[in-house]
Amino acid sequence: MKKNAKSSVKQKKPSTNFINKGVMVFGKKDAQLGIVKRKGKAEPFDERKAYGSIFWACKSVGLQENQSESISAGIVNDLKKKLELKNELDSKEIFRFVSAKLFLVSKPAAHKYKELEKEHGISSTPQVHIVKRKGHLELYDEKKAYASIYWASKSAHLNELEAEFIAETVMKELNAFIATKKMINSAQILKFVAEKMTKINSDAAYMYEKHMDIN
């Protein structure tokens, strides 16, 4: 008789079928929320703190209470889904994710929320000036870039998780590229991002290149 051998089942990684095809299928989700790392320490994700900080930012810029509640609940729900998939996020990733989401619904609230980044000392946006098309200078804003890539991906009919994957992947390369510059023009950024997006999903890259104007 054959001995029953223990079969080792490897956990499936998320499929990347959506890359230049438009489809993405994720494997089984972890039921537990991820761990948020802060200054080397690990702590459980606190939904109340996340909700409270977003609500504070919205109310501080004059949004109505019901609108602030709706925005806060929606972003926290999106954040929980992200944590369920990635299992672990550091505080920098969370601030960038929330800032980008807020930027899409309320720019003033996004700028207010950014104050919390400075308070916690975790802002990593390179201090680089961008030369705009009309010739004036403006500081590079990471959340605007993220939001632009995310918007273009969603406009190409990708789902939320696909859009986030593209935005995060491209932003890592863009920030590394920006960090090597003291000054850059907006056309260079647009070209760089479009090329990186094309390697992942050509439809999203098309929407970005044709309809977006970064910074």
List the keywords.
215 residues; mainly alpha; three-stranded mixed sheet; 6 strands; 9% strand; globular; disordered N terminus
Annotate the secondary structure layout.
Layout: E1 35-38, E2 41-44, H1 47-60, H2 65-86, E3 88-90, H3 91-105, H4 107-120, E4 129-131, E5 137-139, H5 142-155, H6 160-178, E6 183-185, H7 186-200, H8 202-211
Parallel strand pairs: 1-3, 4-6
Antiparallel strand pairs: 1-2, 4-5
Helix pairs in contact: 1-2, 1-4, 2-3, 3-4, 3-5, 5-6, 5-8, 6-7, 7-8
| Major sheet: arrangement of strands | 2-1-3
Q: Give the structural class.
A: mainly alpha
Approximate strand percentage: 5-15%
Please mark out the parts with pLDDT under 50 across 5 or more consecutive residues, or reply none.
1-16, 21-32
Secondary-structure element string: EEHHEHHEEHHEHH
The gross shape turns out to be: globular
Q: State the total count of DSSP E strands.
A: 6
Mean pLDDT metric: 76
Radius of gyration: 19 Å
Query: Cα distance, first to last residue?
Result: 70 Å
Give the helix proportion (percent range).
55-70%
Task: Tell me the number of helical segments per DSSP (H or I, 4 or more residues long).
Answer: 8
Count up the domains: 2
Instruction: Sketch the major β-sheet.
Output: 3 strands, mixed
